[in-house]
Amino acid sequence: MTPTDHELLAHAVAAAREGRAEGGIPIGAALVVDGEVLAVGHNRRVQLGSPILHGETDCLANAGRLPASVYARATMVTTLSPCDMCTGAILLYGIPRVVIGENRTFYGGEDYLRSRGVEVVVLDDAECVRLMTEFIAAEPELWNEDIGEE
Question: Please, what is the angle between helix 55-63 and helix 5-21, to 10°?
């Protein structure tokens, strides 16, 4: 039985919660191929002092090296609309489908993904909105740093 997008999002949400519990930014992702979760990741910029470990890039790193044929069947599931860097990683590896938990608190590269032929599904998930809304209210400076704003 193939899991639904909402069921797959639960893996990314769990990763986002883990990241927040570690003192980081609550954004998580899961890489799914043929209905199976291959890897999860979460934003670890704070925890590791990394400028590039967003949820999606951490997830891709956790998946390890994969052949193009695997990426071509993949879905990236993410709790938040992907930033330009993560959008680029999705395009670089030819991931044809992205499921986004929410895009109210941040609207990333969705239009660009669509223009490049990627299927983009936005679930507008209340839990994802709550995680980000609470985080942004509690730590606006850290959030602005994460999205490259002053």
Answer: 100
Q: What are the residue numbers of the active site?
A: 56
**pLDDT reported for residue 2:** 83
Cα 82 to Cα 98: distance, rounded to the nearest angstrom: 9
Strand order in the sheet with 36-42: 36-42, 28-33, 74-80, 97-102, 119-122
DSSP secondary structure letter of residue 4: P
> pLDDT tens digits for 67-85?
999 999 999 999 999 999 9
Mean pLDDT of the chain: 97
| CA pair distance 79, 76, nearest whole angstrom | 10
Polymer length in residues for the chain? 150
- Return d(Cα 46, Cα 70) in angstroms, integer: 30
Residue 110's identity, in one-letter code, is E
37: alpha, beta or left, given left = phi > 0 and alpha = psi -120 to 50? beta
User: For residue 131, how many other CB atoms are within 10 A of its CB?
Assistant: 25
Q: Which residues have a Cβ under 8 Å from the Cβ of 93 and sit 6 or more positions away?
A: 60, 66, 68, 71, 74
pLDDT grade, residue 1 (50/70/90)? confident
